[in-house]
Amino acid sequence: MPVSQTDSGANAAAIAARVERIPVISYHNRLMGVLGLGMLFDAFDVYVIGVVMITITSFHMSDAQMGYLVSASYLGQLFGALLFGYLAEIYGRKASFIACMATFSILSVCASFSWNIESLSIIRIVQGLGIGALPPVAGVLFSEFLTAKARGKMGVLFQTLYPVGAMISPLLGKWFFDWFGPETAWHLLFLVGGLPIFFAIYAWFRMPESPRWLAEQGRQAEAEAVVAAMEQTAIKEGKTLPPPVAAETPIAAKSNTTMSELFSAQYARRTVLIWVQSFTAFFIVNVFTTFLPRLLTTVGGLSRDDALTIQFWFTVVQLATVLTMAFIWDRHGRLPWFKSGYLVAFIGGAAAWVCYSFLGITGWMPIVFLGIPMVLGVYIIVGGVYVYHPELYPTRMRSWATGTGRAWRCIASMIAPIVVGQILSAQLGAGPVFAMFAGVALIGFIVMSILGIETKGTALEKLAR
Predict the structure, then answer these.
(1) What is the pTM of this model?
(2) DSSP 175-222
(3) Which of 258, 284, 274, 288 is nearest to 408 (CA)?
(4) pLDDT at 3
(5) Contact call for residues 143 and 460 (beta carbons, < 8 A)
């Protein structure tokens, strides 16, 4: 007998209430490990192109061409974030997550056989379909397993493997360059990026689907099985489970996900907020991280090995920043940290601009001592995006809405490398680059101050109203 929309909404509310009473247990930790490894592989495939650009010698790429190459992947990510974000609402978070990994890993292997910059750019566009959607889908999936109290800490912790993936790319790049030479090294780096296909197969059999999504789809038996497994694990680990507390108002009956609802009276402010936050934060962090080896070698005058070493230690500090955030994220709420990150980024970018454009300071030191702190300020924002954005929407549109936020990250990441590449090709120096970053950070701070919504310690179902 089919389940009515009214019954489906009531069942979804009951499942959500049971999830909200389960504390952090080994079940969450295992899921965090699976999703975190997906984030690691995603980051490796995002940032490996920055290493590849300084190891490929046969393609004879200019700075402008490198900018277009970096942007190629983000074009694919733009469409991938929208496509897989929408498919996650129809076919589930798990299926979308696995499809993302399979896509970018297979195309990474294809990239290792590219023969010129044009073929590599086309492959990176297609590869970007999977790269672009995985973090928001993973963030949505994990958030739907967590209680309001645990969502901030655990939601940031699962992302700590992302900077590890960013760290591995320059480290492997340096090793492969030393062992095999530049032309062989870049082929091998792309082959390493194909390893997630095996992990995708593992996840298909071992990773659970979101019980909140299952319940809203009317798949009550499957949702019950997932929640029951969580409850049994909690009991075995000696946890006390209080009685479920139903949502204050019933969860709305399942409806089709549409773009128009993003701009309804209830969600328009939130949509503008996440789009601007995604654009401003990733405009700075993605292009700077990708171009860091190039900036250090061309503007800073360092050797290739020294540039890769600095990038490696930069990613170590990124990891430390995310780990620290995980344990202090919920103390003061989301908004104070977001606004502080933008302010740090603005100060760092403005100071580096002054050094290069007005004080006559050149070389690598402003990049390291001002540019890197600038990006770490933004990383405070980036580390919280995939916790914060899923909190702002109901289950029926959570993945789709978060995917549109990721799409604006991709738009920023397409525009920024081209602009930076043109600035460097025109030999205007690093000053205008940092001035641009400072201006973008200031815009982010203003919008966050005006439109920001605090979500600390509130259940997803209550936040969605």
Answers:
(1) 0.83
(2) HHHHHH-HHHHHHHHHHHTTTHHHHHHHHHHHPPPPHHHHHHTT-HHH
(3) 274
(4) 47
(5) yes
